[in-house]
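#struct-pred

JT: dropping the chains for the assembly here, can someone run the whole complex?
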Amino acid sequence: MGYTIAEKILMRASGSDHVEPGEIVNARVDIAMSHDNAALVSKVFKEIGVEKVWDADRIIIPIDHRVPANNIKTAEGHKKIREFAKSQDIKHFYDVREGVCHQIMPEFGHVVPGELIAGTDSHTTTYGAFGAFSTGIGATEMAAVWATGELWLKIPETFRIKLTGDLNDRVFSKDIILHICGQLTAEGANYKAIEYFGPAVDKMSVGARMTITNMSMEMGAKAAIIAPDQKVYDYLHDRTDKEYNVVTPDPDAKYAKELEIDVSQIGPKVACPHSVDNVKDVAEVAGTKVHQAVLGSCTNGRIEDLEAGARMLDGKEIHPDVRLIVAPASRQVYLEAMEEGILQRFVKAGGMVINPGCGPCLGAHEGILAAGENCIASTNRNFQGRMGSTEAGIYLASPATVIASAVKGEIADPRRESSW
Amino acid sequence: MVAKSGKVWKYGKDVNTDVILPGRYLDSYEPDYLASHAMEDLDKEFSKGVKPGDIVVSDTNFGCGSSREQAASCLRYCGVQAVVSKSFARLFYRNAINQGIAVIESPECVDALNHGDEIEFNLQGGTIKNITTGQEMTFRPLPPFVMEIINSGGLVEHLKKKLG
Ligand code: SF4
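RK: done, full complex below.
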């Protein structure tokens, strides 16, 4: 009997020689990631009463959500995390300067194919772009993982989505995943693992694939996995010398659903307030007034995203009524963008470049919206109130659409703006 | 365990973690602080009126969105004993169990409960009695290991027992 990638990884992690969807297994976690909520995890960990974490080298803690601290409560939380990391000899601790967890985890070589990664963040699914089974868990569960190294998991059913065709000009993997969210809906992949494959996936950069696995979570997916290829091996080459096992699906693996999407049929998309599956063609919402534009986050804050945005500027200025906030996903991305002169171009055009981190994505600081305002963002979530007032609207789009809109002062089709 | 009585707080579909506990309140884990902001962006009356033993009822996909455990713990701190929904988002489902809140997936129960109804909830027996309408409903019991966690009062208590 054949198995999907998810089944194979969980089979290995739970020491089973056979698993079936629906079955509950106790799995050994390879890597455990917690960000600012490590403060809560460490509190619960202490309540459990175990002295030392199960394996300090498998615990990764980046502080990224409210950085630098936005208020005293946050500062106290960060302080607790630093103290805990020291007391437990957690050497993979990344302080506020490094950037968003989902970007720096692979950058620092903590993500390799075939492993089981648990993170106290819903977008932990991102690492599936490297062929890992990675999933979000709650803080209490993480405290249990820190204590025991184990996690109970239900074996999910797997959906398989084949992407074919060539992406059109100024259409990005973000548009594809928005399209898929619109088709499958916000709960369409609840409890499921998704495998993406096909020629259009092969052609995507590792970063573009991360956008897809990142946002699969918005459909409820437990994991989203792409079998690794040479691009992934090249990415890993300079970042880790860890040995890993590449896991690919069996030809006779069983899938709960199979879809095929020709990406050449897809244009720029926008997810409109207040739900990720409220997806429209950009033309349907073009002209909607925009007050803030955000380019960044773990979804689209990588160098290629900043490049795509900068290209859209094309020497033009940001509309005077728009606040453009650019948040590179990590310090490494920030440096690269600086060296390439991209940050300079944004600042010259009237944008604000903020420190790497989550920034305004979760509505804690660095760009809060007032009632009646609209924001177009390259982020992944447009829930009501996410970036401030519950009477503000968040539109999700690709970096190119975000910048085209920031220039125009209203939602704009990136294919109609600028000459590149 | 005997049935506990309470009141129904009923909502629509896709009630997400950002409205259950908005991101701006994730800066503290204080029970009272979290309880006082529970459901704030969806229903400002909730935190003022909710009483221990009450249950939250919703249409599909309750708790979609972030992994924030505070979305479950804020309900626990309000004394909510169960969330009954047509379906749940997986992270909320896990978090609620780990917080010792019963999560009941039952479209039939949801349809038979209205906002403000008085109920009696019996987790062990798998029944909800709607005192207001007189209707009695049953639901599929949770798997034994989930019951163990909930009966212990959450995962921490459960682990303490197991490891201690
Ligand atoms: S950038 Fe946004 S979505 Fe990504 S981890 Fe940070 S808050 Fe979450």
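JT: nice. DSSP finds eight helices and seven strands in chain B. Strands of chain B lie at 4-11, 55-58, 82-85, 102-105, 118-122, 127-130, 136-138.
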